Amino acid sequence: MHSLLIGDKRPAGSGRITVLEPALGTPMDEVASAAEADVNAAVAAAKTAFPHWSGLTAVARADLLFRFSDLVRSRAEELATLEARNVGKPIGDARWEANHVADTLRYYAGAADKFFGETIPVKKGGLDITLRDALGVVGLIVPWNFPMVIATWKLAPALACGNTVVLKPASLTPLTALRLGELALEAGLPPGVVNVIPGPGSTVGALLAAHPDVAKIGFTGETATGRAILQASAQTIKRVSLELGGKSPNVIFGDTDVAVAARHAVDSVFANAGQDCCARSRVIVERSIYPALVDAMAAAARNMKVGDPLDPATEMGPLVSAAQRERTEQYVALGTSGGARLVCGGARPERPGFFLTPAIFADARPRMRIVDEEIFGPVVAVMPFDTEEEAVALANDSIYGLSGSLWTNDMKRGLRVARAIRTGVLSVNSSSSVHLQAPFGGYRQSGLGRELGMHAMDHYSETKNIYFETNP
Ligand code: NAD
Fold this sequence. Notes:
By secondary structure, this protein is α/β, with parallel strands linked by helices. It contains 15 helices and 20 strands. It is globular and about 75 Å long. The model has no long low-confidence stretch (mean pLDDT 98).
């Protein structure tokens, strides 16, 4: 059994979480579950560690974060295997993610001593400067789809800015978060700088969000949970960053190479078994290539290798849980009953575990639930358009605004449409969403604030203005 990590102590918590291996549907490990006393102890440990950690020079913090990054890279295979087994994601993806965690720590180690204030020429004649100040104790609440990646997107800038952290992983996937906490200690980060407390969101997460000694919550998860966190944070006016749900558009114009666009359309929605906030789950296709594109997508989806996450040839693993598969199956049923045409997939293969074959719905329309709602499973809705205006209107017809793609060989149109689509992240002739050095985050109900790049540093610091009178 894995215990909690509070300071350099390993408390047993108040209960146990049985962690499953979704490819088999069987137990994989056991982890302690935190109770209210553990939340208070973790926040207290982070509060005690804060003066020393925030008081180190940025260069000294950077040195320790570089060591943390190196240690993570040396354990990349171990972390990747844990994540592949616990989430069910293909080992090739998990290896990329483990190295991305090391890259993220290295980026923010490098950022620590390059994040500084200004000298401002104010009307009075003295000297006006700004300083970047750490916030204090930061609570990080993360989901199960990219557990170690999303934790590190928050942990690394938070630590670089001088904050101390209490990390709450999702109950389905707490293993890599605990391992990262252990590696932080092993790298020489002082005890209490990183604390890890698995446990239910409704208790441990909610207590963190309401805790008077927590200065900020960095959250990734469902929009409904984000709303609850905003409410809980209101009492003490906490800083809050939210990365929430998505229903991202993929707009494909008729001048695009159908085979290339179809391959990307399939990869960008079925990666991670569709459990991706950036999944391009609404494919919006110019009518001239619509039938050909639907056929090419179906052929690519049928060819996807769905299977054992630890087999390097696997392209799609199982869903994370039985509940997530059932939820996805309900949407497959809703797609058919709502009038869309199921072209392929949506069935359980003959094997144990929480597998589902990738499903493509054609002839979808707005106000169908498979078009409007985030499914978070391997289901895509394809719909035709006739004009550029209609394509933009369909792309923007969502409560979400996280990411999107657009495909065209006409760069004047590419620029026009890229500016008109209202999402925080957009890729043209590409399905990529994440560049560690560039900002990531959503418009509308997809979130508040930005992660990654130097933008994240703003969200883990206060700006202090100091005026020095030189002629009092
Ligand atoms: P979730 O909201 O159910 O859970 C996320 C985390 O919040 C978990 O650790 C959970 O225990 C905790 N939590 C639950 N209730 C809470 C409460 N009342 N107070 C505090 N914490 C609470 O989300 P999930 O099902 O784990 O993840 C899937 C969702 O995450 C999808 O909607 C997806 O789009 C979103 N997501 C967004 C991004 C992004 O960057 N925008 C990235 C990945 C996932």
